[in-house]
Amino acid sequence: MTNFYRDNEDLKFHLNNPFMKRVAELKERYYKITENKYYGKDRIKPDEYKPASFEDALNNYDSTLEITGEIAGDVIAPNAESVDAEGPVLKDNRVHYAKGTVENLKALKQARLTGVTQPRKYGGLNFPTTVYSMMIEMVSRGDASLMNLFGLQDIGETVKEFADEDIKAKYIPMFASGEATGAMILTEPDAGSDLQAVQLKAHFEESTGLWRLNGVKRFITNGNAELSLVLARTEEGTKDGRGLSMLLYERDDTVQIRRIENKMGIHGSPTCEMVFKNSPAILIGKRKFGLIKYVMSLMNGARLGVSGQAIGISEAAYREALKYAQERAQFGKKINQFAPVYEILTDMKVKIAALRTLYYETSRFVDVYKSLEEIEHERDLTAEEKNDLKKYKKRADFYTPLVKGLSSEACNSITYDAIQIHGGTGFTKDFPVERLYRDARITSIYEGTTQLQVVASIKGVTSRLFTEMIDEYTSRKIPYELEFLRKELNVMRKIYVNTIEKVERHNDQEFLDFHARRLVEMAGNLIMGHLLVLDAARDPRFKLTAEVFIKKARAENTDKALVINDIDNAFINNYKELTKLS
Hints:
CATH superfamily of the largest domain: Acyl-CoA dehydrogenase/oxidase, N-terminal domain
Shape: globular
Number of strands: 11
Number of helices: 18
Helix content: 55-70%
Number of domains: 4
Strand content: 5-15%
CATH architecture of the largest domain: Orthogonal Bundle
CATH class of the largest domain: Mainly Alpha
Structural class: alpha+beta
Distance between the termini: 60 Å
Radius of gyration: 24 Å
């Protein structure tokens, strides 16, 4: 029996981050929440599990993470191989999950883990995003495909943020109780990353007060969900994002599911092509804000979720590789004793720790700004709260694509290395690393490719937000014995700032675009290095991790700076010529 919370002390360490006190007090409205309404029967009553203090809240989080870890280790992980082999099937226009997936969802529902961030009055747990992020990591470590169903709780989160009270009262309890799974229905055959090109049409039917949807959607995760948010064109004659709105569709027989995609990985998660034929839906929020506001919010949550998924897969791959290396003997000794192998294993472990600390830092930023946005609907914010709302939203907006891009790329690399350590056996289906490798590949593609994450993150470089954060981390007190790591990071900062200034002196957008990924990765290495040093200040066991990471990161950043220095506009033209772009 394995508990994925108990066997990973890093999770509890991040749960006990000092800033969680601020996160919890905002989520619980300074422990003065009074619920006036209670929606639905057989759900958590508003006053159940309501904490009276931070200690109470932290105890609730810890207990629930313990339960999640047990389910992930004892139910989800053992089912992963059979789910991968069986997958979902399409029959009579309905998607039927694999047997193991049904068991997994039942276990999560019985444990009341299907409405983690929702208010208690809707049957949820009213937990912060940070705690939910930890659940996502553990679920993903057990089976990455299940995260795509578990993580779609963000559909309910979007309804909570933007729908009117009647819609929230009707539908959020369905998410929270596990009665309904969700889907975000955005992508179309001719509108992948470019969602402004969405053509699925919606027209208003005055006789029923409903909107009617017509068109095709493709690559829809969990397309057979009971409740779905659909991006549709409500404004006739429009061609861009200003004509798009968000609508809520409740599953009926008007939608034809053409097929389930035959994918490389995450087999337990059905990816559907759907045809809407005059399908009924209701408007969420305001017309024309579908892409501009609501999808952007939804996608940020999804990207944070994929970051946790990538870290969970990486953790599983690292543990499989370590176990194999400790057991496999060659040339008279276990292979983990050979330098080429233990270097790979150490790099995997250190990279996961660095990504994890960035992931939970980002989650805390999201928690603060989202709670303050909710409070703003209840009362006027104080001057300090207004400042915090603006500050933490900006940080979350730049950190989210940063962690998504970095964690998904690292996940691909870590699972690749896990197979390498297994040698030929890793290329067979006899060991889980083969599945993990296939599951990893999608993380750098869906919810915005790595290239799109760079487009969003580079603004954190050019606006100097990342530099400001690096300086803020530098200003925090640390023990004297960690100062040598700060000095290394200060050298890295000089290289980073000098490189940004060099790029800006070109005053050329194409030059910036060409080198954007290198700049973003340099910023990410610096931020993760500082966060690991701060972790080491709280727990000495992170000292060695920080030292190894920073040493490697400094070499990486130096190399990236040299590439930027050597590849000028003329050389970029060589790239264009070789690929026949000019």
